[in-house]
Amino acid sequence: MFSTENGANQALFSISAAKVRVGQLSANLKCKIVRGKTELTFYDPRTATKDLVDEVYELCNNRLKVIKIISLAKSAIRNNLGEEINQITQPTLLIWGNNDTITPPFVAKEFNKLIPNSELYFIDKCGHAPMMEVPGEFNILLEQFLTKLKHPAATVA
Known about the structure:
Radius of gyration: 21 Å
Number of strands: 2
Distance between the termini: 76 Å
Shape: globular
Largest sheet: 2 strands, parallel
Strand order of the largest sheet: 1-2
Strand content: 5-15%
Structural class: mainly alpha
Order of helices and strands: HHHEHEHH
């Protein structure tokens, strides 16, 4: 039996027949939750390898790191940089997963409009972390961008 009281994360388990200790089940349940959330980062959930899920799980079990992540997330929400983003003057490359459900593509289009000297590339069948999900394609786009910066096109005076 699993129940939640008053929206809190207080779970009650009754598994005497299986003779599984609550601590073990809790770890298994936590791992499944972490796996599911990690998979949501990618278009292809198989990108969330066991090693990556284990790394995220360990991170989630480090109280200090969790506090820092929550603090960073709250800061990002509080300090919306929408009004300041147009002050970026350096050439900026935006590489976005076309299937990003965490920060959807419309955000990329808005960033591209707001950042004066930006280039935007979408990668199909890619989620929130193109550098992890399609590193080959990501690196090609990055190398092309950096090469262009190193050897800018000739301008007519």
